[in-house]
């Protein structure tokens, strides 16, 4: 069967940007930036995106386009030994498992969208509502809708599913983000938030912060999950990979910065004296407990309908971003089953879908509803002598996102440069870009991927393993 392709370079760029732009850009980035030096963090993040992540991105795209296979096939074909095949497997299992935990968060977002549309801001802003919501039966209704939508898009295939969804959702997402930024900037005290975001504080950039920034940039660009290998395998030979890669990286960065200009001014207009410590612990608490309070407060200015509208608009924006990321991550195992086992798309989707539903339900039940999933492992005692436990959800996050992602990235760099080899990699990039051969960029990409990028990724890997597991 002939492999499907994106209809043009733009089709790929939108689909890949759809994958890259997600909860990470819209929520995790502003939270991290606000706590870690504002514009100083943004500058470092941008440097990481272009000087470390972009070469990895180009490597993945070229590997996919060259082999015309998903990661399992690509590693098997070029690697020619069981060890590389095992890395190929890891590049299929990782997106599958990250997909499970990302699916659960997407379901929460969809639930908050539904509740905002139904005008339940008061509930969303009340203490304890998030815990109540994620343990409600209602959640499974939202889960069914999100899974249904995701599979509907994937069933359409590359051009009529993934690309078409991205062509509709991504422009909408950019417009919605712009509209919200403009609106928020008109609120009282919004400028305090802009200042807070844009005044750099370089003292905050410790090694730990930089480590976190790079890990975030990596995740946010959907690297080391096999996604860009898979999407790369649908790129036409005549398309310019470098230009496309730069655009995806640039769009993702733009959305992250735009979201900083949305979230922080909103926080400051809600409470001009906000203390850093109040700026929420994590992105999850920011989006699900802090922001609903802001929406509720808006009610005093623009009424119940107005506030519900703004909240719905915001959650719809985040939902679009999450949905296109979810689609991309599930496409990896789907394409692997199609390539490796010759399955039809529908059969691949149905078998993966069922496994995914089981795991997602376990994840959803691991927030207190079912004890063994909630307390899957225990690792010592806290200051009060209570056992510290990790749930199924925490474990999936720790193992696959925190640990295997940098490891996969490290192996990918070695694979492309030392196994597939530079000249083959360069030849693939040069198709569609005559000026690459002999350019400074070529030298930089080859050198960095063969030297300091894998070293940095190995350091992140060792750091995480030592903090999480020991
Ligand atoms: N890029 C996504 C984000 O920023 C992360 C992601 C990508 C998650 C692909 C799942 C799949 O949220």
Automatic annotation (TrEMBL):
Subcellular location as annotated: Membrane
Transmembrane spans: 12-33, 39-59, 92-114, 139-156, 168-186, 213-235, 247-268, 302-327, 348-368, 399-418, 449-470
Lineage of the organism: Bacteria, Pseudomonadati, Pseudomonadota, Gammaproteobacteria, Alteromonadales
Species per Swiss-Prot/TrEMBL record: Lacimicrobium alkaliphilum
NCBIfam families: Na_transp
Keyword annotations from UniProtKB, A to Z: Membrane, Transmembrane, Transmembrane helix, Transport
Protein name: Sodium-dependent transporter
Classification via Pfam families: SNF
Keyword check for Transmembrane: yes
Coiled coil feature spans: none
Main location: membrane
Annotated Gene Ontology cellular component terms: membrane
Transmembrane keyword on record: yes
Membrane topology type: Multi-pass membrane protein
